[in-house]
Amino acid sequence: MSRAEIFSNIRRGLGRGEASAAQKAAVKARLDQHKANLIPMRAQLPHHEQVALFKEMALEAAAEIIELTDIHEVPAACETWLANREINELIAASDSQITALDWQSTSRIQLNHRVGKVGDIASLTTSFAGIAETGTLMLYSRQESPTTLNFLPDVHMVILHEKDIVGPYEDAWQKLRSSTAGTMPRTVNMITGPSRSADIEQRLQMGAHGPKELVILLISDSQ
Predict the structure, then answer these.
(1) Are the C-beta atoms of residues 220 and 67 closer than 8 Å to each other?
(2) Pairing mode, strands 205-206 and 196-197
């Protein structure tokens, strides 16, 4: 059932029709005036310290970080990482940041742009933000970057620019609302390290509900 049908059923149950322009404006005004929650001190840092905290927390969560100075280094970095593990196929989002890169020189890997499928080994996506508070990535679904790429392959490689790192979760959500003009995407994913579970006999199992490895390609854009 689509989201529109669900909301339609709720309105029918409440005996209400579609919200008027005035009602929508009143809701927006209330949301805009909402005060931020209490922000942890560890997230209230200058940006360069937020970047350092993000790296520390992401590594603690068992993610791998490959630091690059420019996004054009991504193809070579992907090829080297995948070749070292004898992986020769990469399923990538059709995000413009990825499609604009020069993949012609990466002869050792086959790049395909499509949705993720069961059995895929490695995927590459971009991310919307990094959250320093917990070393978390924020991604959202859209036509050029389906959510299946985030969860079905065993290895998830993610491009993150340092400039997109924020301190607390609240700043990430505000950044998302601002960039999408208030129209929230269908799915927002928060990813902190590779998937894991210790539900069975308290034994940690990597890749229990998603990728076994999370590789963050962290771009400093220093040049």
Answers:
(1) yes
(2) antiparallel
- What would the DSSP string read from start to end of 105-171? T-TTSEEEES---TT--EEEEE-SEEETTTTEEEEE-BTTB-THHHHSSSEEEEEEEGGGEESSHHH
**Cα–Cα distance measured from residue 185 to residue 210, given in angstroms and rounded to the nearest whole number:** 21
Q: Residue 58: what are its φ and ψ, rounded to 5°?
A: -65, -40
Residue 4, Cα to own-chain centre: how many angstroms?
25
Separation of CA 185 from chain center: 13
162's tokens: 């340092």
Which range (34-43, 58-67, 72-81, 182-191) has the least confidence? Answer: 34-43
Per the CB < 8 A criterion, the answer to whether 170 and 178 are in contact is no
DSSP state of 71: G
pLDDT digits (tens, 9 = 90+) for 87-130: 999 999 999 999 999 999 888 999 999 999 999 999 999 999 99
Amino acid symbol at 181: A
- Measured torsion, CA atoms of residues 58, 192, 151, 178, in degrees rounded to the nearest 10: -100
For the entire predicted model, the pTM comes to 0.84
Would the CA dihedral through 58, 61, 65, 70 be positive or negative? negative
